[in-house]
Amino acid sequence: MKILVAVDGSAYTDKAVQYVISHLDWFRGEPELHLLHVRTPIPTGYARAAAGSAALETYYREESHAALAAAERQCEAGKIPFQAGYKVGEVAEEIHAYVKKHGIDLIVMGSHGRGAFRSLVMGSTATKVLATASVPVLIVR
After folding, report:
1. CB-based contact 89:36 (threshold 8 Å)
2. Which domains does the chain have, with CATH numbers?
3. E strand intervals along 55-113
4. What would the pLDDT profile of 85-141 be if each residue is shown by its tens digit?
5. CA 7 to CA 107: how far, in whole Å?
6. E strands of the chain, at which residues?
7. Helix 125-132 and helix 91-102: axis angle, to 10°?
């Protein structure tokens, strides 16, 4: 079973990763764990002109590696094989593209649990992923 854990570098991600690791016996065979961080792009007009494309790509890579670090350490400590990567784009779209490309069977993500009103006004990444997912989604709070 291929499991994608959406990683944002928060304590909620840590809980989601720990949940998957502690429940591996629920999954058939040897689960294949994918850790994915999606960076929302910064407005590039002025930034790209001022900093240059290479600097912007370096920023995305370094920030993504920092966001993935704790989840990677959890997997390594539990001796769980994993693949880690990052994408730049709209979070739900990038997650769904990754699911399709890699044949993911389950998406796991942490929820910040901000409440119904705030989610209604601002939108929620977990809600967007859940509403458009083509595979089951496990939300860990």
Report:
1. no
2. 2-140 (3.40.50.620)
3. 82-88, 106-110
4. 999 999 999 999 999 999 999 999 998 755 555 455 434 888 899 899 999 999 998
5. 11
6. 2-7, 32-39, 82-88, 106-110, 137-140
7. 40
> What does DSSP assign to residue 139?
E
Report pLDDT digits (tens) over 45-73: 665 666 677 888 899 999 999 999 999 99
Give the Cα separation of 68 and 39 in Å (integer): 11
Q: What single-letter amino acid sits at 97?
A: A
- Coil, helix or strand at residue 42: coil
DSSP-derived secondary structure for 67-115: HHHHHHHHHHHTT--EEEEEEES-HHHHHHHHHHHHT-SEEEEE-----
CB 98 within 8 A of CB 134: no
